[in-house]
């Protein structure tokens, strides 16, 4: 069975501190008992037989090459009965026989993940906690890696991506101050995300291709990009190719820190920012983009997954009077933390210095400047970043 699983084994039976210690048949379905990494028993969990059959991972149930489901979910009888069970503890697999004469196997990891006893299949393996930073919990040093380490080894690439996951951003030092060098680094992470600005794009106040405040030398309040895109860029990266100016420091701000502060200090405002949908738009010749999402977006479990704040690009919106006042209070509260410079990190950009940040978490801005600065950069989707990180964490020793 283990030989047949091929890459399924990598995805569905990873090393985990939580272990299945017994599996048994009950009237309701499968009963699974787990112990955690300390050897303590966890509450037994029941699973209906139809659900179990729907999530088996043997070659008859799951395509071993594509990991796509082969079970016909809609043909499974509601009163499906398991007639026999064998638990292979070393492999952490439960082998099952069914009343229709078929047999299948389910992974203990799947059983543990869906009840929260081990990180879910979509989560990072192993889980690495994020470090939330602001004026009350400042970073003592900036996360950074060397370009050659990222290019030459998967270990260096993993360190770069974990920096971004943990802190929301990372610097890369020693990068050639060229468009070619920037592209090489970008593709090391994965395919870039195309937008109206292109794939790889230049950024300078001397450029006039787009009517956006980024193409200026004025102060830019910290914000997130792409509030007018349904799939807002997950990461933004730019390399400093040339700089000769006074001012112009790049600003980084942890948007998750702001969200968490508001949740502690004004829970009603936090709820408002989670509930009210804010539209964003981008308008120029032959372009009219529009998308909508709340300022604070959570997943189904209530976990914070995205901050989206860009008052420059906010489209007109009208709410009922009471909701409008709630919105302005909450949105203004969020903004007050955004412009609190004690929450900022000011980063001096030099030729060959590259900044990459999580655009779903960190907000970025710019100090006004006199002179010239020329950057070259790109976006990556959140999906590309998370996929690369999961693969590397599972493979790099």
What do these coordinates show?
The chain is an alpha+beta fold. It is built from 11 helices and 20 strands. It has helices spanning 2-5, 8-12, 49-54, 108-113, 147-152, 154-167, 179-189, 255-265, 267-275, 321-338, 382-395, and strands spanning 19-25, 29-35, 45-48, 82-88, 93-98, 103-107, 144-146, 169-173, 200-203, 220-223, 235-247, 250-254, 277-284, 287-294, 296-298, 304-307, 345-347, 354-358, 362-366, 369-380. The strands form 6 sheets. It has a 6-stranded mixed sheet. It has a 4-stranded antiparallel sheet with strand order 10-19-12-17. A 3-stranded antiparallel sheet has the order 1-2-3. The longest helix is centred in the C-terminal third of the chain and has 18 residues, at 321-338. The two termini are 25 Å apart.
Structural features:
397 residues, alpha+beta, six-stranded mixed β-sheet, four-stranded antiparallel β-sheet, 11 helices, 26% helix, disordered N terminus
Q: Gyration radius, to the nearest Å?
A: 25 Å
Largest sheet geometry:
6 strands, mixed
Mean pLDDT: 90
Number of DSSP helical runs: 11
Overall, the morphology is globular
The strand line-up of the biggest sheet is 7-8-18-11-20-9
Summarize the entry for a quick read.
This protein has 397 residues and is an alpha+beta fold.
Secondary-structure blueprint:
Layout: H1 2-5, H2 8-12, E1 19-25, E2 29-35, E3 45-48, H3 49-54, E4 82-88, E5 93-98, E6 103-107, H4 108-113, E7 144-146, H5 147-152, H6 154-167, E8 169-173, H7 179-189, E9 200-203, E10 220-223, E11 235-247, E12 250-254, H8 255-265, H9 267-275, E13 277-284, E14 287-294, E15 296-298, E16 304-307, H10 321-338, E17 345-347, E18 354-358, E19 362-366, E20 369-380, H11 382-395
Parallel strand pairs: 7-8
Antiparallel strand pairs: 1-2, 2-3, 4-5, 5-6, 8-18, 9-20, 10-19, 11-18, 11-20, 12-17, 12-19, 13-14, 15-16
